[in-house]
Design goal:
144 residues; three-stranded mixed sheet; alpha+beta; binds iron/sulfur cluster
Length: 144
């Protein structure tokens, strides 16, 4: 498998000078567009399909995800092979197959995004409560 690293068009320093410091606070949608959505849009334009790890139990916005669907946002087919898995299914698979995982998961970070937009969750909180905490944003814009 060849991994392809895709970078935003501008560095964090250029972003700060063009759009202001801490754009993730003042306009997180613009920040996600620059750092995530535009780069993925650019690379996906070369392909006929993509495969993601989204699951229906992750968030209400993902509850209707199909295993195979047309992704109108990016204009290609989208495969979500573990859409029906629960969080427990994922952890069972990790343990049985000794899969390497992000150690932050063991420190109350069930969902991990960018450094500035992820916090630990407290007992009883939604697993994605630590993403864009204090903002009504729930998705970066890749899965709409
Ligand atoms: S998750 Fe936060 S820091 Fe990352 S791109 Fe989106 S707004 Fe910017």
């Amino acid at each position: 498998m060849d991994f392809v690293r895709v970078a935003p068009k501008i560095t964090p320093e250029e972003q700060a000078s063009q759009h202001g410091e801490q754009l993730w606070k003042s306009d997180p949608n613009a920040c996600c567009n620059i750092r995530k959505v535009e780069p993925l849009t650019r690379i996906l334009s070369q392909y006929d399909a993509w495969i993601t790890g989204i699951r229906r139990d992750q968030a209400p916005t993902r509850a209707n995800s199909k295993k195979v669907e047309y992704d109108a946002k990016f204009g290609l087919m989208k495969f979500n092979p573990i859409a029906h898995w629960t969080s427990e299914d994922v952890w069972d698979y990790i343990r049985v197959n000794n899969v390497v995982y992000n150690p932050l998961h063991d420190q109350n970070y069930p969902s991990i995004g960018c450094q500035y937009c992820t916090r630990q969750v407290m007992p009883g909180e939604d697993p994605r409560a630590g993403r864009w905490s204090g903002n009504d944003k729930t998705e970066c814009g890749l899965h709409k």
